[in-house]
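Example record for the data management plan.
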Amino acid sequence: MSRRFALIAALTAMAGFSMGAQAAGDPARGAELAVTCMGCHGIPGYRNAYPSYRVPKLGGQKPDYLVIALQEYKAKTRPHTTMQAQAATLSDQDMQDIAAFLGSEGDAKPAAAADGSAAASRGKEKATVCAACHGETGISASPTWPNLAGQHEDYLVQAITKYREKARQDPVMQGQVGTLKDADVRDLAAYFAAQSGLFTVHYNK
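Corresponding structural encoding:
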């Protein structure tokens, strides 16, 4: 079995297991719970205090992935002090409801790949290894793997770097990005950021 096929098979099995573990959320209740979230994620271009990078766009993100992320913050297996504190008191149902609300705000729309800057053009060539999970243009076919298209470039640099440093606990991602140089990380981030997809949720409930 080839390494690429084995990876895809393993990811498909993991995605199916995670998807089966998720229950349907209540978007109306999630809208009420998401008030605190929107203090950062509902402001276009809002920046994390330190290190300084724009907080991720959540509009168009996979609801199941958002639940997984919140669970990791609550378990403190994903580093971010503020997010760990925000997730600490959330129940599984709370997480599902918040994710359902964010998912109800609209889907990330696939589009033809855009080249953008010179860095994005270089990133397009390097992004082929990412396509098995995240899609050719950053729109994932799996409910449990995140969309990357349209995400803030500096956030993507920070996230990939954390996987490379093993600060974010995902063996598959750690293996995929472990040998990337800083320039590779910047090129990949530029490519996915240049694509159409994720957006900032405008909260006016």
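Summary line stored alongside the record: Residues 3-20 form the longest helix (18 residues).
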